[in-house]
Amino acid sequence: MKRIFTMLLAVFLVASVFLQMQPLAAYAEGEEVILFEGQASSTFRQWGDDWKEAVGLREDKFQYSYFTKPFTMKVEYDAPVEPMLVMMSWTGGPNWVQMTPSYTTNGAAYYTYELITDTYGSTDFSTLNAIQVMPSPSESALTVYKVSLIYGSDTQEDVMITYRGVSGRVMDRMHAGWNLGNTLDSRGDWIVQSTSATPTDFETAWGNPVTTKAMIEDIKAAGFDAVRVPVTWEQNMSADGTVNAAWMTRVKEVVDYVIDSDMICILNVHHDTGTDGWLHASESNYQRNHEKFSYLWQQIATEFASYGEELVFEGFNEMLDDSNNWSYPGPSAGDVINKYNQDFVDAVRSTGGNNSGRCLIVNTYAACTSAAQMDYFK
Asked: Which end of the chain is more exposed for a tag (fewer CB within 10 A), N or C?
């Protein structure tokens, strides 16, 4: 009996060693492992509500060996905005991390190995307990059809981009930029109520001194070759949108400081958007304000029509919807962003002169670059 027990123990130990020596699963380049396939939906309502996943995978649905070789996670879905990927651990890894896709195309969101490991904070997924695919803040539901891992290392190549024409020449000149913030972009009812509401009162309202030519020359000497001049126009316009002459004169003076210092100047419409602005990415706002917005840009463009390509116009800063969502809320907001951008371009081009070919900057919703926004951007 003792001999049989000894033999069984020896067999067990040999089998145990053999199992421990087996290599982790080897997945071929391009091989796909499916974690979920079917149809599952969820809707984001509002912050504070129960945020329920469309697909939830616990560790019984995946193996540690799945994550021992570089992979890209692919989510096939239907929604106007991209899904969020959430990874959780309650056994020693990150408690909760979430990420938007590296890119989306043809109804699929891709989360690269670099993105996942950077966000997760490790290439060791041995303590990963759950994977969830969640709807982004949106007005529409997310439906997921498939979640899978595609194996292959992330490869990155340097890409040489050649810019042509006016935009190319402007881009070639810009290497380091500086923003003249909290000066001409200030706003607030208290400025009108508590001061004489002169250009100087607005320029210094948020704590900065009056901009001087010497200050801008110092920026040039520090190695900068581009200055963005953000301007808020609303409180220096009449009810019909006509810009106060003294305000336009001051804006032009600061623009001249930049250009005379041999730098690119970017002039924009700034806090007229954002949480407190009069411009929002909603159809009702567009119907009320698009003519006034176009008129504003016609005035600005006319004032600077003779300026060369060293002056660049930016249509607006961070435009939000009526709920002030900083995450892309969906196509209805995207439509309005596209329309305001087109109005900006049309208004500037209509004034002729050098504006016929001036370099113009158009922004996405909230000036962000998520895959869904970029896909909808025109």
From this structure: N
Backbone angles phi, psi at 306, to 5 degrees: -85, -5
Distance in angstroms (rounded) separating the CA atoms of residues 191 and 182: 14
For residues 166 and 172, what is the distance between their CA atoms, to the nearest angstrom?
A: 10
The token pair that represents 366 in the structure block: 């909230």
**How do the residues of the chain divide into helix, strand and coil, expressed in percent and rounded to 5?**
35, 20, 45
Residue 122 and residue 102: Cα distance in Å, rounded? Answer: 18
pLDDT score of 152: 79
Percent of the chain residues topping a pLDDT of 90:
65
Lowest mean pLDDT segment, chosen from 86-100, 235-249, 342-356: 86-100
pTM above 0.70, yes or no: no
Burial class (CB within 10 angstroms; exposed 0-12, middle 13-18, buried 19+) of 147? buried
Coil, strand or helix: which one is 351?
Answer: coil
pLDDT at 11 over 60: no
Q: How far apart are alpha carbons 300 and 268 in whole angstroms?
A: 9
- From CA 285, how far away is CA 271, in angstroms rounded? 16
Burial grade of 14 (CB within 10 A; 0-12, 13-18, 19 or more)? exposed
Determine the Cα–Cα distance for residues 259 and 256; give it in Å rounded to an integer: 5
Burial class (CB in 10 A: 0-12, 13-18, 19+), 217: middle
What is the spatial distance between Cα 12 and Cα 18, in angstroms, rounded to a whole number? 10
